[in-house]
Write a structure and sequence with these properties.
Layout: H1 3-6, E1 8-14, H2 20-37, E2 45-47, E3 53-55, E4 64-66, H3 69-79, E5 89-94, H4 103-110, E6 120-128, H5 129-136
Length: 143
């Protein structure tokens, strides 16, 4: 693992007041977005004792943290101001996305919206440890 990969941190922030199914869906969809941007997060080929090939789930811890919508908006605003560090990514899950069923429709809808003014259900972050920690502060684990 390279020095850059060693210093990566991943965090998924989710609104704790959502129904359980929405919490799980938000965390899953945001995590897929993060892994698509940073393939080193997952996908290592593994084999079991019977030589069955499977893929590893995650090479990094992925804490699911709780944050209300206002905190999520503040995180988006801070994370996306100026230049992001190399290897960093932000994956939002705005509440309006729940009613959209194709990515093309989501892309089109997003271009007319300001995420810092939208109700957000979750945000995924990956990047240098210090940067992610500066955004997540003292947020608590979702339990």
């Amino acid at each position: 693992m390279s020095k850059t990969e060693e210093s990566l941190r991943v965090s998924v922030l989710v609104r704790p007041d959502l129904p359980l199914g929405a919490v799980v869906n938000t965390a899953a969809v945001v995590s897929v977005g993060l892994a698509a941007h940073v393939p080193a997060l997952a996908g290592t080929v593994l084999r079991d004792s019977a030589d069955r090939m499977v893929l590893g789930c995650s090479e990094y811890p992925v804490p699911i943290l709780q944050a209300d919508s206002a905190t999520l908006q503040a995180v988006i605003a801070k994370a996306c101001q100026g230049d992001m560090p190399d290897g960093a990514a932000v994956v939002p899950f705005p509440a309006f996305a729940r009613r959209i069923h194709t990515f093309a429709d989501y892309q089109q809808e997003l271009t007319g919206r300001d995420l810092t003014s939208e109700e957000l259900d979750g945000v995924g972050l990956v990047g240098p440890d210090k940067w992610v920690r500066s955004l997540t502060g003292a947020l608590k684990l979702l339990r």
